[in-house]
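Q: Structure tokens for this one, please.
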Amino acid sequence: MRGAIICIGDELVTGRVAETNSRFALARLTPLGFEFASVLMVGDDVEAIATALDAALAGADFVLVSGGLGSTDDDITAAAAARHFGLALAESRRMIANLRECFAAVGRELPPGAERMARLPQGAEVLDKACAGFKLTTPADQPVYFLPGVPAENRRLVERLVLPALVERFAPQQVVLSRKFTVFGLGESEIGLRLQGLTVGCPEVAIGFYPVFPCEQVVLSARTSQPEEAEALLESLVQEAALRLGGRVVAYGQDTLAGAVAQRLIAEGLSLALAESCTGGLIGHLVTSVPGSSEFFDRGLVTYSNRAKMELLGVKQATLEEHGAVSAETAAEMASGARREANTDLGLAVTGIAGPDGGTPDKPVGTVCFGLAAEAGVKTLSRRFMGNRDQIKQISAHFALDMLRRYLEDHALLHRP
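A: Here is the predicted structure, written as tokens:
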């Protein structure tokens, strides 16, 4: 049940395009018990493709190949496969029919040159209803799936055809269960120290750390033939990890920090308005990326200039002159102004210096102030973050959301019956 993946394309090996097909296949197949010997990336070169096929087939029971099945001159995967397997290229009537059906579905006729996509290794099995894609089987009975590189089509075929066929063919005896949680405010080394020894006595459980800036993701996984027991074990380990990390776990599973905040706001029936300066609307973007955000999010104001802060939020000129735009005092008035003008339960504000210029000895680049206004009053925090301009904006936006998350957790505890 060991597989290998080959990704083909000059655009991949030169870094012009990010490769995502292998990640999708791995994410879908490894939880079902499949292991992978290698993931190879090669350019549009017949010899390189042949070498990759040799290497993959030497250590795997099946191979997934993606890319190079289009109609342009650099789409040579079918020709390379034919040469590698010692087969002639021939026009596939089945693929011609598939192509016509694909173009007809979008109201178009088969364009000139598209027939080239139907020149496949003789005897190749055309994948059902695929605009591109076929399967060859080696003399050693190893299936090799050649899939299009376009992510949407690649994933559709993996999900609908390849995955069911591999499960039926190889019938894994074990599955891989995993639990993921997201941490904000701690680096990987600190997380590792706090979780040291977490899986002692659980040899079937592996732990992995994956940075997804500005957060860190932790994944606990177990290969098992007893899913129910493994589920309970992983759940207990996640709970223990959360205790050790002291409130730094901000989301579980596929959820995000913004998603976790959204769930809290909806559950508490609270509304929110934002006032952003240095983040330039990034917090609003994160919040509105969550489905259902209209249930709690009223508005977001990007008040970049002092004039905007005064006119739209009611920040006092005296406050700006005495304390500066980047100050706890200004952040407090921004948050209060957003809450007042929007008539919402909460107002969240951020103002800072993202750089690379604008810093002073008293307020260096990376200085960011936050304000959170609620019925009971206004809370402010000030921090200095390190990094380039984009990094400081990302950290600041996440810190603001985490500040709101912590408030909502306390709010829920205070109002629990």
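A few notes: The radius of gyration is 27 Å. The chain has a mean pLDDT of 95.
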